[in-house]
Amino acid sequence: MGMSSSEIERLSYDVVVIGAGGSGLRAAIEARARGKKTAIISKSLFGKAHTVMAEGGAAAAMGNVNPNDNWQVHFRDTIRGGKFLNNPRMAELHAKEAPDRVWETGGIGRTFKITSNSWEYSGDGHALALLAGADLLNMEFVQFHPTGMVWPPSVAGLLVTESVRGDGGVLRNSEGKRFMFDYVPDVFRAQYAETEEEADRWYTDPDHNRRPPELLPRDEVARSINSEIKAGRGSPHGGVFLDVSTRLPAEEILRKLPSMHHQFMELAGVDITKEPMEVGPTCHYVMGGVEVDPDTAATSVPGLFAAGEVSGGMHGSNRLGGNSLSDLLVFGKRAGDGAADYIESLSGARPGVSGADLDAAMAEALAPLSRSEGENPYTVHHELQQTMNDLVGIIRREHEVKQALTELEKFRERASRVSVPGGRAYNPGWHVALDLRNMLLVAECVALAALERQESRGGHTREDYPVMSPEWRKVNLILTMTGDTVSLSRKPLPVMRPDLLGLFDKAELKKYMTEEELAGLGSAAASEEGH
Amino acid sequence: MGYKAALKVWRGDAGSGSLVDYEVEVNEGEVVLDVLHRLQATQASDLAIRWNCKAGKCGSCSMEINGRPRLGCMTRMSTFGEDEVLTITPMRTFPVIRDLVTDVAFNYAKARQIPSFTPDPSIKPGEFRMQQEDVNRSQEFRKCIECYLCQNTCHAIRDHEENETAFAGPRFLMRVAELEMHPCDEADRREIAQEDFGLGLCNITKCCTEVCPEHIKITDNALIPLKERVVGRRYDPLVWLGSKISRRPSKEDTPAVPGKR
After folding, report:
1. Cα–Cα distance for residue pair A30/A34, rounded to 1 Å
2. The CATH number of the domain where A217 resides is what?
3. How many domains does chain A have?
4. B46 vs A119, A159, A429: nearest CB
5. Hey, which residues of A are catalytic here?
6. Identity of the residue in B27, B41, B104 whose CB atom sits nearest the CB atom of A378
7. pLDDT tens digits for A422-471?
């Protein structure tokens, strides 16, 4: 049995980093380099966080593969991917600083049933920041990665890396058709190939050919796969086919995608050099998160900084592949710096935590252990995942999201009565009980924002409002804790500076902006000729 | 399709423990970790298991299944007969924290002792050039997910606690080998491999290679070549003579690990 509650150690640090993922470690390095006594708190073994799962690599415009790559190209791609709802300053800092840096608490995926996220991703950072008084922004934008494994059931949701498509893998339906050509949206038509021949030439000659539609942003690909499956053109286990076996020689597959070969061979008994994979959308990443100052990663709560998946704004409504690793390097460093600056600005007069607050937190945490009769937290968790998957999933409808909010009310009631046997030492049932509060808060934020935003953009698709609205583009949805309840408000999206706007054709901006905005641009801001 | 599997799971903590019998439902395509999760959710919510990615990439769910060190997430139930009793125990080499979770601090301590990559300071990042062959060599070692199954199975520490100070285990000798073979690493790591990390205690029984879930040929590609390099330096008379008369300064020895000699 573990320590009794009276045996509590008190430690003192300048900077406490919560989460040992990439951004947390980057922040910790920075804070330590600034001479601050730094602690890292992690839910699992050091070095095992989700950052190690990243296979696609970090995105940065290095100009080493294609000399035409530069920060402006990366910036434009990021903004296009995010459907112009990104915080422009964050996207700018990210694109400019990523090349220098390529030499935190993560996500919320555990709120959904089919997810590529591990048990740790219960939205702790989002919920704790909200409870501490920080604002969350645009929580409706949840990225469903287009390619998760669909079979066997035990690995459903497990990620199949984007590199499979980047290296030449194509998506086909049950009729053998490369269906992505049918799903290129108007806003992207100019940038994507229209024939298989042109698409295939792109892999070797990207300067004279347009990209294959399999490489559209993740939200587009995920929705397209979803449509094919719904139309009855799916694979035997309810996905679609992702094939490299007919595209690359076996030895090249083994060299470029060793880990995917291993994964399918060991877990599904599928040899990807000989047969196609079956894949389908899986909850992967939340674009929404804690509202931060782009330059310092500071939240509205003094002394609280956020970086990585827990922060919001950078990726707009949809994150591009590869931008997560560069995001956490750029903003992890800035958060570490920000925290060190903050500590120095206090010059010794540090705020403390009140004994009463500590006692209350302790009592709340220990309650499930002391209840003798109550529901099993695993049951509540499984049902919550199913509800979010069914009612606030990849395609959303008003009545379903409303129903989800009603269901969440009931879940909260049940979560307040769960009980677990055992003690405080390494007790997974207790951990689930503790995580429920955070998962429920985050689920409520996602549902509230999903109900409010009456348009479809990036990681938020409303069947009842299927198009992108220029009016809604200007709106950030803010979630705040008022007493015990979450409240939602609207706030204008920060305006993009004219020099950054000038990186886009006026013709492209017309697809996203209101008449008013376009009229205000003038002739100097956005150039008429192509890039 | 589904069936009930008979499981004996070790339950206990640092003080004491024993095998407990369970019967758990198994569905098609499942791995041992799925079945343990079902056991947690339905019968034993406080069963301690360390896990994370469930894809064989993070190396957290190391355990012993019917005596063999394995990752729970990569061991399919179809490996076993439906009537076979599965005995699931924590890694034996490391101290138990609770149930299937062990204290693997030993590995973190050894990792910290390895002197880090030591490139020529005059070469700037981006200026390093490596042959593809050299890249492939270290690439194989870099597949390691640090599950510590090789550390757990190696009899030099599994059966001899007294060797824990002298011996770093296959995972970290492989790291020393990787750096020693790295064409841009300027340090000579042969002395520390033998003196500080206990290469001599390895008698190449290949147990580590057998349990590696990444199928890294630890013994053949890391440990034996490292042994050859150590022997070459120590006992080859020509190398010895060369080192005495050569006008080219030899590579510097890596300084001894503090507190080890």
Report:
1. 6
2. 3.90.700.10
3. 3
4. A429
5. 145, 165
6. B41
7. 999 999 999 999 999 999 999 999 999 999 999 999 999 999 999 999 99
